[in-house]
Request: fold
Amino acid sequence: AQSVTQPDIHITVSEGASLELRCNYSYGATPYLFWYVQSPGQGLQLLLKYFSGDTLVQGIKGFEAEFKRSQSSFNLRKPSVHWSDAAEYFCAVAAGSSASKIIFGSGTRLSIRP
Amino acid sequence: ETGVTQTPRHLVMGMTNKKSLKCEQHLGHNAMYWYKQSAKKPLELMFVYNFKEQTENNSVPSRFSPECPNSSHLFLHLHTLQPEDSALYLCASSQATSGDYNEQFFGPGTRLTVL
Reply:
């Protein structure tokens, strides 16, 4: 069965510092991978996605993620965080050709230290 | 209105009440989804509709009854709920339910409290 693990429940980084949020997935074939962000009181917004091709994908708001098949990972990175990046971040995997069933990780809450 | 809208944004109901959640998408999509987001639990897919037909029911209790009258509207009818059903209910839509076209766009959610 497909699964997604986000090992960090809560991370605090200083404004201007770099960020890496970890995500590991379990899926037999090539997965469709996503990162979503959820600000308080809001729905989820797609940051970036990986379907195939270049393993380093660029997203919105200066985020990027790298797909590493050997490590079953899809970590999210940003070189310099801003206070407005404080939110909940969800990694997700879609199963198979019928990608309607997206499995979400439990999320990582990001706090920004001024 | 743009994107995906949900009404109401907040709902408090008793266990014997009947209420409905509404979702509307203004993106010309063909697929719509209901998710449940509980505290300290991963987002759970509840239902999927593709071209108004239900294609996924993730073992959801019958006290939750979805309705999709057209590709733009999705309802979740609620009756005899339990306190553990209190959660944020998110609606999403996508162009289709497969492959590259499955990017899902989410509404802001309805915060449901069952007393």
Observations:
- The two ends of chain B are 32 Å apart (CA to CA).
